[in-house]
Structure formats: structure tokens, C-alpha cells
Amino acid sequence: MSRTTDLVAVFTTVSTRQQADLLARATVEQRLAACVQIEAIHSTYRWQGEIVNEPEVRLMLKTTQANYAALEVLLRQRHPYEVPAIFALPIAEASAPYAGWVTAVLAQNAGHS
Amino acid sequence: MSRTTDLVAVFTTVSTRQQADLLARATVEQRLAACVQIEAIHSTYRWQGEIVNEPEVRLMLKTTQANYAALEVLLRQRHPYEVPAIFALPIAEASAPYAGWVTAVLAQNAGHS
Amino acid sequence: MSRTTDLVAVFTTVSTRQQADLLARATVEQRLAACVQIEAIHSTYRWQGEIVNEPEVRLMLKTTQANYAALEVLLRQRHPYEVPAIFALPIAEASAPYAGWVTAVLAQNAGHS
Fold this sequence. Notes:
The structure is a homotrimer.
Chain A: E1 7-14, H1 17-29, E2 35-47, E3 50-64, H2 65-78, E4 86-90, E5 93-94, H3 96-106
Antiparallel strand pairs in A: 1-3, 1-4, 2-3
């Protein structure tokens, strides 16, 4: 499938709803994400030899490929974790009015001024 | 990674559980989605100059690349929002029996009759 | 967009939180997933001619492309469903320390010994 948009869906995970809201607001304020969705999850992973299971909050941030690097920098600066999970899934197709809205929102950020 | 399937995961977001259930049922009834998952989220985005945060419901619809355009048309017709977020993530790999089930379910829709 | 990582995000769905926790623990124990996130959802799909809607639990497992086939085998062996949804979304970009952590965790699994 050839991609018809340059949008990406970026995921990261924090410990609390408050941390998630702070990251969501910061990335939208700086126009590095057009919108951010957060949801409660439970995570299982290996930590110092033990398998742990704990509640977390996941963010899904919508941005463009061109803004991913700057968004990752901001997330790492503000993130409560030392090695946060931050990764982007490519978006293959998007409704044209929605893709236009995302692009227009992000076009006004500092990288474009 | 070369893709071994033509499945896609389509996302859209509405305000209420009832709206989500209506869209889920309509897309499955018309065989434009083989299955739909919904979940409660909170969204942060810019609206008329303000940053807003509100509860929403996200849908993840499983379909094929060939059915994406018709699914997007149906979602836009039935969607409560003026500019809904509708976009598709490519699926790179899928369990063969599952991919076969999705394809078989969708093969009976109107586009194939 | 050219991919800068070989990570993938794998999704599957089960009926209960307990089933989800068992799959999460098994895949992390065998180092076929570096971390697993689970969340409550509602699913709509066609079953024996009827459209059904039921609560389920979704898993999102982070692994590498090289480990996908072995992970799918393990998921199918342990899965409570006859034809489970199991599929992988490609990850286009990832924070370098995170990608390094995933790769390091998985490098110690049986396939590498």
C-alpha cells in the first residue's frame, strides 16, 4: 500500500492521568501534536529481573512525519521516565479534511515561523 | 518489512458510547468492517483558539485496503462530527486464519455482488 | 517514510483480564515481547449470522519483526479462541534508547541462545 498522507500516530506511556494531561497539553500548545488521546491501561514488562504488572496511562498523539523528531525531543524533555517508550506508527490513509486540519494546526508551530 | 496482508486498522472517534455502537453496527452490517473495537478515551486538542479536554469513544475497525474508501464514505455519512478523525494504519503481518476470516466476511459485501 | 526501526506492535484480543494477564506474562517470560499493554474494550462482529457486541480485553505487545513469527506461534498455542485476531502494525520511528531496550530484552530469548 502506498501512503497517501504523511501523518503518524505516536505512542508513549506514563504513570498517572495527571502526567498524561501535562504531556498532552504541552504538545498541543507547542503545535507538535494536533490532538492527543489518553486511556488507562495495565502494563507487563521485565524490570531488574522481575516481571512486573502496573497501571499506566497511554497517549496516542497525532502529528506529521516532519514534526516527529521535534515531538520526540519535547516528550523526552518532559517525560517522567528515564527510558520512555516513544514510537510512531505510520498512517497509510486519512480522510482528506482531517489530514488537512492536522497539517494546518501544525503549520503554525515554531519550526515554521 | 514487506507486508504479507492487505488488512488495515481504521480509527475514528465519537462523543458517546451510543454513537460508537451505531457506527460499529452499521459498518459490520454492511460488511465494510469485519470487527470493531471501542474504548473510552480522553482527548486534548485545539478548538477555536482554546485547548480543550473531553471524554470521547474511539473505534478501531478492521477491514482491507480494498474496502477502505467505501468504509470512509460510510463513516463520514453517519458520523456526528463535521470533520471527523478517520485514518488507517497498515497491518504488516496477520495470523493466516484471522486474515482469511476478515477477507471472507468482507467478500460478501455489496461491492462484490 | 522509510522505517528506522524493526519494531512492531502486535495486537490480540481475549475474553477476560485473567486470560490477558496469562498471555502477557507468558510472552514476556519467554522474551518474545519486551512489554505488553492491556485495556478493556467492547467488540462488535458477526458470529453465526448474528451481529454480537461483547466486552473483551485487548493486548498490545511490543516486539521486533524478527520475533513476530515465534510470538504468533506462542499466542496461538496459549490463546483461548479458535481463530484469534493476531496482527502486527509496523513501527516507523522509535526513540533510540527505547528501541535499544526492546532489542536487548529480546536478544536473550531462546531463539538467540
